[in-house]
Amino acid sequence: MRWTVLIVDDHPLVGQALELSIRSAYAHLDVARVLSAAEAEACARQLGSRIKLVMLDLILPDATGFDALLRLQQLLPDADFAMVSARIDAHSVAMARAFGVKAYLSKAAPVETLVNAVGDIMRGEERFPHATPPDPVAVDFHRRVARLSAAQLRVLRALAEGKLNKEIAGDMNLTEGTVKQHVSAIFKKLEVNNRSQAVLASAQCLQSDS
Fold it and tell me: Quick check: pTM over 0.70?
């Protein structure tokens, strides 16, 4: 089976340059490229275990912070992930480590550096810009949030946006009763007692300004 590298980046020129360079450097690998988190999820469902590495932009049109990473980790439990960002800061790097990412790469780096990182990750190596230890708060949050289903992750994001159960039900085409069940399950899995605690936990760990 040929492995696939999935590039998730909403900047067409950046993504295209990376795609062409990876194809040229690794003839034994297939490359797929999408522009959004939703397209990445669809690709993950289509290709499944063929996806060996996901190179994921930290900020996408339909996802912020580490939302897309969490959803894709659920769909691709055996894949490796590399975060790619225009901005490098200690908090985001520490978060990436806590969430099990294998590399944190700068878009400002030469394309050759990003391409070489693909080979390093495939060999089991990690690539981070500096020795930043994982954030223990994020490690604990990732342990808990990994228990959530895809639907529960969407509900959690909606809670963080301040939406009421009725609004969430309309957006997700669910009944309010089903939303209430999801909310109760979220509280239990995140080990919190109310909406405020759930929103606080998600805001600290899912949002990013990089």
Answer: yes
